[in-house]
Write a structure and sequence with these properties.
GO molecular function: oxidoreductase activity, acting on the CH-OH group of donors, NAD or NADP as acceptor
Number of helices: 9
Bound molecules: NADP nicotinamide-adenine-dinucleotide phosphate
Number of strands: 6
Protein name: 3-beta hydroxysteroid dehydrogenase/isomerase domain-containing protein
InterPro entries: 3Beta_OHSteriod_DH/Estase, NAD(P)-bd_dom_sf, NAD(P)_dehydrat-like
Keywords: Membrane, Oxidoreductase, Transmembrane, Transmembrane helix
CATH topology: Rossmann fold
Number of domains: 1
CATH architecture: 3-Layer(aba) Sandwich
CATH superfamily: NAD(P)-binding Rossmann-like Domain
Distance between the termini: 13 Å
Helix content: 40-55%
CATH class: Alpha Beta
Structural class: alpha/beta
Organism: Protea cynaroides
């Protein structure tokens, strides 16, 4: 069970209405954080559940923002000490995924640098580590492994290709502009078990 802690920090969560972001916001609110969650359409019913979360009335602000629009993200991140950059289309369509993955991540990282947040946490995926046809099958996969970007492109795995580019973009801006960056390598199982571990099945 998550312990109730009190925090007065404000953090920004991009793509607030999505699966992982919604669980994260529930956890942050429970821990006493103030949260600015970005949604592209605050009036869409798919985001209504956020307002029902415990503590949301007092400590959750939904900001209309698109990660492709620098000013809207700047507005959302202003006043925050940290950013969880989670927004990204989870689809295998180059037209839908590549621009938000790359330019969206660049915008969020540059905003984080401009606002001087203390840390950015970026949700990447396990897929950026193991997709390499030349990988030694006996090698244990960890965060030092990289998928072969040319292979991802060749097999038209645009989601994986986009996430590799996005992670590279995040590291590049972090190094150049001295942003403290943490990357999480998630997979479906870890996401599901995390939510079950934290809150049970309901
Ligand atoms: N779920 C998994 O098993 C898994 C595994 C590995 C990694 N991840 C990573 O975790 C993150 C979230 O995944 P999820 O499963 O929670 O996805 P999800 O439920 O589909 O949520 C994605 C979110 O991204 C937002 N988004 C997309 N394009 C945007 C844009 N241009 N500007 C602002 N917001 C935008 C969507 O907002 P709208 O509602 O406005 O479209 C949505 O809220 C992604 O970065 C994904 O790569 C997920």
């Amino acid at each position: 069970m998550v312990s109730d802690m009190v925090s007065i920090e404000t953090v920004c969560v991009t793509g607030a209405g999505g699966f992982i972001a919604s669980w994260l916001i529930k956890l942050l609110l429970k821990r006493g954080y103030f949260v600015k969650g970005t949604v592209r359409n605050p009036y869409h019913p798919k985001n209504f559940h956020l307002k029902e979360l415990e503590g949301a009335r007092e400590r959750l602000i939904l900001c209309k923002a698109d990660i492709l629009d620098y000013e809207s993200i700047l507005n959302a991140v202003r006043g925050c000490s940290g950013v969880f950059h989670i927004a990204c289309p989870v689809v295998n369509d180059s037209k839908l995924v590549l621009e938000p993955a790359v330019r969206g991540t660049m915008n969020v990282m540059n905003v984080a640098a401009e606002v001087r947040v203390r840390r950015v946490v970026f949700t990447s995926t396990m897929a950026v580590t193991y997709m390499d046809p030349n990988r030694n099958p006996d090698k244990v996969i960890d965060e030092t492994c990289w998928s072969d970007i040319n292979y991802a492109k060749a097999i038209q795995d645009w989601y994986c290709y986009g996430k590799i580019l996005a992670e590279n973009t995040a590291w590049e801006v972090a190094r150049k502009r001295r942003v403290d960056l943490v990357i999480l390598l998630l997979n479906v199982q870890s996401c599901l078990s995390l939510s079950i571990l934290l809150y049970g099945w309901t």
